[in-house]
């Protein structure tokens, strides 16, 4: 059979087109990891341009543009790292998809920052340094710049390593390090630093203990009852009303107090009233939802899914209202110092500064958040809706208790401590039931070390990585901030 004279050219053309397609596919695969950093870089550039437009003191435009750019960088990192503590348990329990969690968190974080973030922020990060010790406003500006850069870099490194760290402690460490470099050790309020150091232990232990206590309550009062559905109809509305009451008080303290003064008695009254109203509404809803359910644990988990989603959304709103200052606080301090020529304990936050913080947190969550969400939600220990609900509830209760005692706790440490608490309680409970079963049937058999390690419900490698990151956060950011301040002040001042 004769070959068509056009066969060879067409075959060559098809081969060339196939090669081009493969090159294009390879190029897209190579470029994919660069998409998120590219979008983040574009946002930082836009933040700097916004600062140049809205800030009128032309002589200091360069400093303001740089501060806004690094403020946007810090906000991106808060979204990538800190928000995972609110949404991780809900995603790990399969109550929310990753996409749903990111959308809800982005909306609630932005709403919390813009609606309840307040118009005043502390410029010295909870009295860590004494502004009077600064030689001049210019020294104060470079100290705040160094604190902003060092804390952002540290949170970025922690996110890359898969360790959820406290952005509040990162900023505190940055301010302390820059303050020491600028004015010596005497500039630091060491009593405040001692309280913060104590919170490294208090936050996770208290959060873990409360989460474990609620899980024990659910097991004893619902899961181990012969009629689980009847027990759930009694206790789930009570637990939901506790959640609503606690979050109402939490939001009153952390969000509403930025708008109008709210004391602890007023917040607790608001929480009690909303809790009672929630119980009246929830009880018939749970009764209707539980009709026809099988009398087994899997059915009970469904009843906790909606409260868990609600708690995650409320935590995100409160986080946006409270922690946006970590991103924009130093930036607002720099803007105030350059505009007025002096520094103050508190300053007004310009709207464009607050918008940078809110959008940056949302972009950071969308672009880089899934890694830490998976870490908190599923890689430390296995969560279901009931366990995740205990973690979310413990976070709000712990903040309420700590606020009443005047303890500076970290929401990151509380939430992750709650995950650890649930996991370690399950380990203890499993070992206890195993011993009881064996003692009732036969003598306890020796279990090899390797087998006991395999049965652990909390991954020890993640536990050690996270705890190590917590311990070194303040020293690391302090050292980095001091170094950055010396470079900035020595070269640019």
From TrEMBL:
<feature type="transmembrane region" description="Helical">
    <location>
        <begin position="259"/>
        <end position="281"/>
    </location>
</feature>
<feature type="transmembrane region" description="Helical">
    <location>
        <begin position="302"/>
        <end position="321"/>
    </location>
</feature>
<dbReference type="InterPro" id="IPR001204">
    <property type="entry name" value="Phos_transporter"/>
</dbReference>
<dbReference type="GO" id="GO:0005315">
    <property type="term" value="F:phosphate transmembrane transporter activity"/>
</dbReference>
<feature type="transmembrane region" description="Helical">
    <location>
        <begin position="388"/>
        <end position="405"/>
    </location>
</feature>
<feature type="transmembrane region" description="Helical">
    <location>
        <begin position="34"/>
        <end position="55"/>
    </location>
</feature>
<feature type="transmembrane region" description="Helical">
    <location>
        <begin position="62"/>
        <end position="80"/>
    </location>
</feature>
<keyword id="KW-0472">Membrane</keyword>
<keyword id="KW-0592">Phosphate transport</keyword>
<feature type="transmembrane region" description="Helical">
    <location>
        <begin position="411"/>
        <end position="428"/>
    </location>
</feature>
<comment type="similarity">
    <text>Belongs to the inorganic phosphate transporter (PiT) (TC 2.A.20) family.</text>
</comment>
<feature type="transmembrane region" description="Helical">
    <location>
        <begin position="139"/>
        <end position="158"/>
    </location>
</feature>
<feature type="transmembrane region" description="Helical">
    <location>
        <begin position="349"/>
        <end position="368"/>
    </location>
</feature>
<feature type="transmembrane region" description="Helical">
    <location>
        <begin position="194"/>
        <end position="218"/>
    </location>
</feature>
<dbReference type="GO" id="GO:0016020">
    <property type="term" value="C:membrane"/>
</dbReference>
<keyword id="KW-1133">Transmembrane helix</keyword>
<feature type="transmembrane region" description="Helical">
    <location>
        <begin position="463"/>
        <end position="492"/>
    </location>
</feature>
<keyword id="KW-0812">Transmembrane</keyword>
<feature type="transmembrane region" description="Helical">
    <location>
        <begin position="230"/>
        <end position="253"/>
    </location>
</feature>
<dbReference type="GO" id="GO:0035435">
    <property type="term" value="P:phosphate ion transmembrane transport"/>
</dbReference>
<protein>
    <recommendedName>
        <fullName>Phosphate transporter</fullName>
    </recommendedName>
</protein>
<keyword id="KW-0813">Transport</keyword>
<dbReference type="Pfam" id="PF01384">
    <property type="entry name" value="PHO4"/>
</dbReference>
